[in-house]
Amino acid sequence: MASSKLEVLVDFGDSPDKQQVDKTIKELTSREGVKEAQFKDGAIMVETSLPSTEILEFVTKTSGRRAVLQGFGDGQSAVAMVSGQSCCGGTVVGVVRFQQTGDVLVADGSIDGLPPSSEHGLHIHSTGDLSEGCNSIGDHYNPLGSPHGGPQDSADRRHAGDLGNIRVGDNGRATFRITDRILKYRLWCNSTVSWYIPKPQKDMRLRRHCCMGRKRSPISRQGKERGEKMLPKSLLS
What we know:
Layout: E1 4-10, H1 18-29, E2 34-40, E3 43-48, H2 52-63, E4 67-72, E5 76-83, E6 93-101, E7 104-112, E8 119-125, E9 162-167, E10 174-180, E11 192-196, E12 203-209, H3 221-225
Parallel strand pairs: 8-12
Antiparallel strand pairs: 1-3, 1-4, 2-3, 5-6, 6-7, 7-10, 8-9, 11-12
Helix pairs in contact: 1-2
Organism: Chilo suppressalis
Protein name: superoxide dismutase
Domain Superoxide dismutase copper/zinc binding: 92-184
């Protein structure tokens, strides 16, 4: 699995305790999914295939100090802030970071305020137009006009914007790290972001308006069979 490089700033103070730093690094590198970790200039540099939120929580717990993510990725990357202000009563908040590593796109994030123990689809839509809420965001990003499939399907058998499902814990938080070879970083240039979070086990929709042209495509029969008839009519064929 593709790894990401994280820069985790830890509040060790002006004179970090070497024993405390070494203990944090040792326990971090012993975790499965962590390839490398080292302390440099007040921050812990981590190469990992784990979600960044999981790394932050572990460093905070192990060191006993506050930790924040200061850097993500060492190449092309973008950040999407999540807000439920246009739906869900404004209770849904989070962040998703995108990183392109070779031919793999990483979507790493956490979202709070979702119904506990629920499951949602994570989709990118064809426009970022929120003038009519979820009625104006367009269909799934689908430049090839492919049928509705799953994230493991080939490009001609799935929507490029379909990134699969995320699962929510008992605390209402979804922590995830998705890798995808169909969607590319070039989608994220010159763009703005917004989110729509619907009911559990329906679709979560990310809209992003990019510098690329988009081709609208109808929602597939398979999508309708999976319950999308509950969504606003403008999202359906």
